[in-house]
Amino acid sequence: MHDTKKTVRILAGALVMWGASLPAMAVDMSFFVTSAGPGNGANLGGLEGADRHCEKLAATAGAGKRTWRAYLSTQAAAINDTNVVHARDRIGTGPWFNAKGVLIARNVDELHSPHSNLTKATLLDEKGQMVNGRTEKPNRHDILTGSRPDGTAFPPSPPFHDMTCGNWTKGGDEGMAMTGHHDRAGPTGDAWATSWNSAHPTQGCSQKALQSTGGDGLLYCFAEK
């Protein structure tokens, strides 16, 4: 019996090293796209509210024992603002697996590199279902991030535009937030158009504004622990 368990552990480790998927029973979900947003546009109740939304959906899916964090950056108030939050710094160290046990990325650096396994087929919601992409109705591929391609926050506002809808507290027509395309699809094949975390800003912060550009207030959720 001891030898059998040891063999299973070795095989599972080998599969992870090769980037293969593991059965959901063998690897707990540690990443998902939210199946729904909080419903108030980009007003998520700040980072804390966004994290609570991730935790709520994870608990409903049976993954509530982990510490969940929304992949969101905040907007710096000044060049030397030490309180700015970078999305890449708040999601743990990985590895991360989707609801079906498929490896998304081994660590933060791989997550933000061409070697990550980020596609429409792998960026599933907490129920293990695919999220509508650019060619489907309604299009929901705009995922709120407020981040640059490397997962860091944008320069301070002002003089630059705020890319976080007031640090995720605005839900009206004014303001904007950076989004990524979970389906890696856009109007062109350029890197910005196919970026999972930094494709284009919204045309407002309300739910209607988010939907007008192909979004629905959805988030990326990562298990920090």
From TrEMBL:
Domain of life of the organism encoding this protein: Bacteria
Keyword Iron: no
Signal peptide: 1-26
Name of the protein this chain belongs to: Collagenase NC10 and Endostatin
Classification of source organism: Bacteria, Pseudomonadati, Pseudomonadota, Betaproteobacteria, Rhodocyclales
Keyword annotations of the record: Signal
Keyword Metal-binding among UniProt keywords: no
Gene3D superfamilies named in the record: Mannose-Binding Protein A, subunit A
